[in-house]
Amino acid sequence: MRVHLVDGTYELFRHYFAVPPSQNDDGVEIGAVRGVVRSMLFMLEGGVTHLGVATDHVIESFRNDLWPGYKPGAGVEPDLLAQFPILEDALEALGLVVWPMVEFEADDALAAAAAEASAYAEQVLICTPDKDLGQCVSGDLVVQLNRRTSVTLNEAGVIAKFGVPPASIADYLALVGDSADGFPGLPGWGAKTSALVLAKFGHIETIPEKSSAWELPLR
After folding, report:
1. Which pairs from 150-155 meet CB under 8 Å and 24+ separation?
2. Which site in 64, 82, 126, 144 is 20 to 30 Å from 138, CA atoms measured?
């Protein structure tokens, strides 16, 4: 059994900017919803048997209280935000498992579902291009699938792409920054330096304060 876990927020945003606007009989914009539903039907028709979708029912989460610059809901088009509850209702009517997140985020739901499903599934595919979810990848059991490009990353793929294993992805993004989430990163910590240091020490907390103790291999 293969379990597919879909980032519904990403899918809704992607279809909102990719498909023409469309309104229902009441004049409500539903073009992106239609696009996502069609996409999910395509997956089911293609043989997917176990499918769950996570959405950010509320864009802000507890992380906005921890970091003022964290991705806000301000600036998101109102007719896009209004399609979240419509999408959730439509997917539930389709018979899919839906996790509408409020205090936490869609990413949290996907990570939790991946951890649970990995105990019994043959393979878990987290369907999102979000770099954050790379930390959930495990061997060939839990992989990350970018449905737009059809690229799948297993653990070896994450290491090849970022230079660090999945367990260090959060540290890597903290150092290099992630503009999608509003994290600026640390000055002087580019992708190559961060990968070299984390490949040796694993996590930020274990990096020695004195660079003379690093003894990094040359690449």
Report:
1. 152/125
2. 64
Question: One digit per residue, pLDDT tens: the chain, 219 residues?
Answer: 999 999 999 999 999 999 999 999 999 999 999 999 999 999 999 999 999 999 998 877 777 677 777 676 667 899 999 999 999 999 999 999 999 999 899 999 999 999 999 999 999 999 999 999 999 999 999 999 999 999 999 999 999 999 999 999 999 999 998 877 777 888 889 999 999 999 999 999 998 887 665 665 545
∠ CA(165), CA(8), CA(111), 5° rounding?
A: 35
Residues 6+ apart with CB under 8 A from 150: none
φ/ψ of 182, rounded to 5, equals 80, 20
